[in-house]
Task: structure prediction
Amino acid sequence: MHLRFGILLVLAGGCGLDSGDRPAVLAPGVLQDVAGLVAAAVDEQQPPGASLVVMRGDAIVLERGYGLESIERTDPVTPTTVFELGSISKQFTAALVLKLEEEGRLSLDDSAAKHLPDFTSLSPDLTIRHLLTHTSGMREIFSQPELVALFEIPGSSAEQLEAVARQAPADFAPGERWSYSNMNYLMLTFIAERATGQGLEDALSVHFFRPLALSSMRACESRPGGARGAARGHLRTATGLVPHPPENFHLFIGAGGLCANAVDLARWMQALATGKVLTPSSYAQMTAPARLTGGRMADYGMGMVLVSPDGTRRLGHGGYGGGFSSQAAYYPERETTVVLMLNRFVFPEYVERRIARRLHGIPEATMSEVAITADERKRYAGTYDIGVSGSDSAVVERDGKLWFENRPLPPQPLTYVGNGEFVREGQPYGYRLYFGPDNPERALRILGMGMMTWYGRRRP
Result:
């Protein structure tokens, strides 16, 4: 992503970050470093534009825009430029469902079939909780060609979408394993709309957007970014950056169809964490690891990624799609919120991790290669089922080196760092693979896109 940058920088003066649990005042140099990190990442990754907001407690301490809202216009990105949120939208859907439980309109342990009786193939054991935590087994939307077509074809209707969604298959029994699926949050959208008697955007507005004065929050248009104040998504082709083609994000609002600016998204994260959105018990459920059959747990709550790769507790979510990519994270031990939004599909989680480490006084990550024998490479090479139909991951040996493959991403060269752990070559913040003990069903954990942990099972 390329960027021309400048806009607004707000600094809080004082001494450096202390080592206690309460937030300390950040030195101006720290915030300047953070702004520089993003500027450098933008120059390297070449998006048209980016937006950054950092909060400490309920105060914005850094806000900056970089580059352009669209290559078709000369309007600069500001902290109030509206971007697509992608899957960060799931956090709002999850919060609404938890709010509806507080109001007595449903229970998380209700059978999904109770609220979706026209979805006739649902397992009676499938609950709303399974949908919220991605433990339902429902097949991913982008593994269902009929739903993909409705997403891409202009003029597709909500009625068409629901008719096709009713036939969605399951790939495993509820609670058996964790596997991210946009289908879960499409079904939660239908449940919330039926429980409230409102469209999801209206229900979110009544419960959250208006009470919290989040004025930029709204359903995305199929072709966002046509006017000043809204970013346009982009993709790179053989001839350079081009605007992303229209998609029917409004049909998938609860899974990935909301738009907002970085300021409002940061304020939402802070409000959610400080009891302004949900009761403490509801928020505790939202931020608790998903529990699987047999007592195993996954690093995901309800619309909330729980991976904390750098030793400081982190709650957040990433969003990708339509030529956009974003990360929103809250660090409760330091009461710090970081939001980074870009109008090209890249990996902002790499940059957000570096930002958080700088804010928290953690040195830059390093990686030291450990020698690995040919026999060891053969032990790790194989195909791994990650629970997504038609989308296995693979570890492949080529010319004495291991590569990680998961289409449509390009192959990732791997560096072995010991103890069954591999890191993307030259990128200590990138993809990371953790192999379990050698057994007939060798486990593989993949810390990947969105800073989520994916769980793989080796295929025979």
